[in-house]
Amino acid sequence: MKKIGSFVFAIIGLGITATAQESEKYDRREKFTVGLRVGANLSNVWDSEGEDFDADPKLGFAGGVFVGIPIGRYIGVQPEVLFSQKGFQASGTLLGTSYSYRKTTNWIDIPIQFQLKPLPFLTILVGPQISFRVSERNEYTFGSNSTAQEEQFDNDNIRKNMLGVATGFDINIYHVVVSGRACWDFQSNRGDGTSSTPRYRNQFVQLTVGFKL
Predict the structure, then answer these.
(1) For 86-144, how does the pLDDT look when each residue is reduced to its tens digit (9 = 90+)?
(2) How far apart are CA 131 and CA 24, in angstroms?
(3) pLDDT by residue (tens digit) across 41-67?
(4) Cα–Cα dist 159/195, whole Å
(5) What's the distance, CA 118 to chain centroid?
(6) pTM of this structure
(7) DSSP for 48-91?
(8) Where are the beta strands (DSSP E) in the chain?
(9) How far apart, in whole angstroms, are the C-alpha atoms of residue 211 and residue 34?
(10) Which of 48, 77, 170, 187 could lock onto 123 through a cystine, CB 3.0 to 4.6 A?
């Protein structure tokens, strides 16, 4: 019995040693990395203000490049450049008239995130994000003046860049990275405040899969 017990403990010890060696082999926390990731945003708005303004979430594409810059074993910086589709669907009343509204906006998001790397397979991230609006598409149904209202909203004084915050995690599986993010804009869409569009700030959650060198 004692020999069997010694054999079992020896096998467990070998297994733990092999796992530790394998983890150390793929521990890239102190290495400079670069990669690509693609996935989807589920976006909506917060801090909205309008006449009976109710928004529903909208699905969009997300993808781009990222760089991991280590500052020692457990911390680092991770800047990214991403193409990011955001938007929302809304309905309500504006100036006494019922409307439905579907907005799709295309952005270049540049988060600069602080990395906390407690384990080889886990990276926790948080940092500021600046976003630059590339284009947008608006679809309206607004009483009998849908076309005129759509032109007014398309030409309205909407902010072309946003400052916000991004936070989330990366799960590192060898060269594969599964990433989750949550992001909020600090600035509203109204530019200098003269816009007649209902006020809102973008928010979204993001899930992507990537590959890093």
Answers:
(1) 988 877 766 677 777 788 889 999 999 999 999 999 999 999 999 998 988 877 776 65
(2) 37
(3) 999 887 655 555 677 888 999 999 999
(4) 10
(5) 22
(6) 0.76
(7) EESTT-EEE-EEEEEEEEEEEEESSSSEEEEEEEEEEEEEEEEE
(8) 33-49, 54-56, 58-70, 75-94, 97-119, 122-142, 161-173, 176-185, 199-212
(9) 9
(10) 170
Structure tokens at 32: 């400079």
Cα–Cα dist 51/98, whole Å: 10
Q: Of 32, 110, 106, 29, which Cα lies nearest the Cα of 64?
A: 110
Measured distance CA(161)–CA(199) in Å, rounded: 15
Half-sphere exposure of 139 (CA within 13 A, CB side): 7
